[in-house]
Amino acid sequence: MVDQSAVGRNFTPVVARVEPGRLRYFLNTLGERNPVYRDEAAAHAAGYSAIPVPPTYLFCLELMDNERPFEFLTDLNIDLARVLHGEQRFTYHAPVVVGDTLTFKSCVTDVADKKGGAMTMVVVETEVTNQHGVRVADTARTIVVRNQGAS
Amino acid sequence: MSETATNAPDVGERIVHKTFPPISRHTLALYCGASGDHNPIHVDIDFAKAAGFPDVFSHGMLVMAYLGQALTDAVAPDRIRSFSTRFAAITQLGARLTCEGRVTELFEDKGEKRARLALTTKDDSGEIKLAGEAIIAL
């Protein structure tokens, strides 16, 4: 079971490239037709240097280009079948567009037991920077672990 | 892209509203590949049952992606300063989602006029799946 000793733990940084084909697959899956994400001219007209990514796509990029997408679960000895996504937060500082190369640096910032130990909430915060060293976003996810045999 | 710069919304105004087609097994399989989230609990019924669930269920981030789509239909992406949600309930197969956002506060931060939006995603029975918030620049 994950405990307080996990707080402060860092994970291997993930470097992810924003590729147009993968982005298009994501847009098609969601039925996203907004021209700003699909048409370079519309993106330029909206003031972007290239096609921007949708608001939740940072989460996907970090997973897709990760050699070990569930690294933090295995390192913290958390069973994948027992996790649920509790909360997700994105704070945006600068645009992310097709062609960017992003670096994701993640750290465990909080571990808290809930409901008499039946659940543990684990918060992982991530700093995202682009190829120019610009901090483009901060993200935070809260993972809920359903503990086995807890009261 | 957005006209909100000149026409600031009023507190209470609903500026985000979009409905989506039912979530199918096919959507979940596609989203698995599209998102890089390969947790089998969303596509493999045997795995889901072994984990104590009656069937596979949606990725929370798929539901948040729909909410994000509804949001950027109303607000240009570069006006969104933050976007957060709490995953209040599991979204089952077949759910028809409705995403809404209302203005709850107008304020100024770092010299920028901003609005706080309360966001929800509900299924067709009205159950709240996601409850969230966005801060947008006006």
UniProtKB/TrEMBL annotation, chain A:
InterPro entries: FAS1-like_DH_region (IPR039569), HadA-like (IPR016709), HotDog_dom_sf (IPR029069), MCH/BMMD (IPR052342). It comes from the Bacteria. This is MaoC family dehydratase N-terminal domain-containing protein. Residues 5-138 form the FAS1-like dehydratase domain.
TrEMBL record, chain B:
Pfam families: MaoC_dehydratas (PF01575). Transmembrane segments: none annotated. Residues 12-107 form the MaoC-like domain. SUPFAM superfamilies: Thioesterase/thiol ester dehydrase-isomerase. Gene3D superfamilies: Hotdog Thioesterase. This is MaoC family dehydratase.
